Amino acid sequence: MATIKGKIKAISVSTQKGMQKTNVPEAELKADFGIVGDAHAGQWHRQVSLLAFESIEKMIAKGATVSPGNFAENITTEGIDLSSLSLGSRLRLGESVELEITQFGKECHDRCEIFRQVGDCIMPREGVFAKVTAAGRICVGDVVEVLDD
Asked: Do residues 128 and 101 lie in contact, with contact meaning Cβ atoms separated by under 8 Å?
């Protein structure tokens, strides 16, 4: 099978849950923890969230004024169909960071600002959650590679 590769389009973090995330040029990820300095990091199954830029483009086409990080995702990817992966799929980001996919989508308890804008939000359907299995630093522009699916 050919290796599936994409890239990191954006990295976003927030110090508190429920806040919009801020884009940063790079981040440090700790194994079994998540992104250092991000409120969602910790010892649970949703340490890092990912959303494809292609999903964000779908929302822009519906009239939403959105950009990477607006969906509270930590890592915005480009060039990989995240929804085609399987639970347990492993990704390598940059030189050394490895993630394992632990959950697809999530329940949206409160209708977010994006839903109020256009009557829809893509994150509950197309967002992907993962735990960090190998630590390291990532930068915007780094390669994202599917190791196994």
From this structure: yes
